[in-house]
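Fold this: Nuclear transport factor 2 family protein
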Amino acid sequence: MKYYFLILFPFLSTLSFSQANTEVFLFNLEQSNSKIEVSNGIHISNNEGYDNQPSFFGEDNILYASTRSGQTDIAQYNINYKSKTFINFTKGGEYTPLKIPKKNAVSAVRLDIDGKQRLYSYNLSNGESTELIKDLVVAYYTWYDEHSIVSAVIENEQLNLYVVNITDGTSRKYATNVGRSFHKIPNSDLVSFIYKEANKPWQIRSLNPKNGVNKLIANTMKDVEDICWLDGKTLLSGKNGNLYKLTLKQDNNWRKIADLSSYGITDITRLAVNNNGTKLLIAADLQSDKQDIETQNNVTEQTVTDPILSEDEAAAVVQKHIEPFNNRELNDFANAFDANVVVNKFPKDYMYSGRNALKENYRQFFKNNKKSNVKVLNRMVHNNYVIDEELVTLNNLTIRQATIYNVDKDGIKSMTFIRNKNTTSNPETIVNDQLEAYNKRDIDEFTKTYTKDIKLYEFPENISSSGIEDIEKRYKVIFQKVPDLNAEIMNRIVLGNKVIDKEKVTINGKTYYAIAIYEVNDGLISKVTFIQ
């Protein structure tokens, strides 16, 4: 029914969760005493869909996971020629490609079409792939030497740290509740990892893979688990569009060294530095060209930290602007919104931002429309999102629309209008067919409800899946693995060619909720946007 629920399965949790519209950048690095300069950024992936987990392959080449034809494979980028090639042709999807020490081969986590997640090696001479680790579901990893791998292994819906010797097949568990960032510490025999103890700051710790001894190095920035080593004493990390450094025994806290938002970067995740510390790879989310950078960064940060309101609390925040609108009380109406409110057309067509801009827009709106009234016909709430089906009367004209409100306790943070669109067919028919096939776990009937170029998004427009082959591959695994799978519609808004459903889904005895916005064209579902 929804791509979102793929993240709930242990064998898919780490990979599917990261399927956003990320891109890979290459920067020059220059160190002078304690100063670090980042310059000459190049957008090397420039590809719709998932491009992530970059690493250096020698001094002239870069490896990263990249989407092509709805599947994620290993891409190789040549720095000198600025060219991109793919080095594998399996039916599965590959993630976290790394050079294998002392071999003409690359390793990667592969998600096969049978649903199994395994670590493979890929021979660069003949393209053959070989399974490296049996019986352990590796999610993230790094090479300690040509014989040993330090990895995060999925066990009981959490990541635990294992050291595996691929030569003799032995493995040892040395830590629990770890993150995804593993790096060989320069000029040492140690590997760093992220330790996530409940209700405490995340820690960067060192591990001696030979004896399992681990020690605290430093804390990460809040809610940030991606780091890399510039040298044996300096760490790099990113948050939003900014790059930070922490020099051990010198810096008391993380220090900002670069603002990369001019490259369109809003959220830095993976980082890698080459052996001589002169080049930096970054994987990051990009902003919309029409969105003001500073406003977008503020919204992103608030989204991470805002507490979840109850349904009644979220609805009450939205309700505060209804009566002042109908009474044309401009000041009270504007004060129902956050000072940095962002106003869009669905999904993310930027209109304007800021309470002052909103106030001026509605001042003109009231001037141009002598009569104006809004009536809420239907309302659905999920976490801090409220979607209202609204009947808007302007003078003698009546308009039906839906509006997505993102709120916190202080007001409406964003307002996204979904306009009515003429349609020649009833979109509910195909959405209901899809629901029926989903509950029967009938993959053939399920895929028939989508267009060949179907795309799934996380609101507002982070692409999570593309193409009917990708949909079939992913849902086939779900249908096979979850016998009690069931989706129930709790609330529905139908607006032109769009069907907006609040859904209750049962998976392995547990219940989850989300909102799905289906768009139907020529009788088939062409796009789905999930609000999680």
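The first strand starts at residue 22 and ends at 32. DSSP finds nine helices and 36 strands in the chain.
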